[in-house]
Every structure is written in C-alpha cells, then in structure tokens.
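Intended use. Records such as the Type II toxin-antitoxin system HigB family toxin entry shown here are meant for training and evaluating sequence-to-structure methods. They are not intended to support clinical decisions.
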Amino acid sequence: MRRVHIISRPVLKAFVVKYPDSKSALDSWWQISSHSYWQSWSELKSVFPQADKVGDKVIFNIGRAYRLICRLKFGTNRTTLFVLWLGHHNAYDKLDIKKL
C-alpha cells in the first residue's frame, strides 16, 4: 500500500497566498494526510475525528476558520484525495456539497 495521494496542491498553495493565516493548519493537514496509509474510512476518522463524509467526499476542518472538501477514493494500491473546494466556514454553509 502506498501513501495517500493528494491532488491538487496548487489549489492549497494559492489559498495560502490569499489567506496566510491558513498556512500552518493546511501544512499540518498536508503532512499528516500525505504520510498516511488509510485503507478505510475508520482509519481516516481515527486521524481526523472531526472529518465528515458526504457520499464520496470528505470534509476536513482546517484550523478554526476553514473547511476543505476532497473527493475520497480508497483503492487497492493507493488512497486518493482530490481537492474540490477550500474556503471559510461561512462560505461552506452556503454550498451544496452534492453538486461539487
């Protein structure tokens, strides 16, 4: 099993440029996630207990101000997280997650 593959780091980097206060929390999330070997939702949830699942998507709390939504795919050789959306909690509240 290979480590979790995260697509698309440029989205995260662009967000940090716009919102520098998110850097520490996003860097921490990246380090933990990209060095993990999750093979199931329960394994992910043991690392990020406040993560929520909506269909094939996972919602992470980033710091105290942001939410990160990724498409989650558990594969036989690798788990993939595809970044779909990143923003403030108040913008998240207005999203229709199922349409992402």
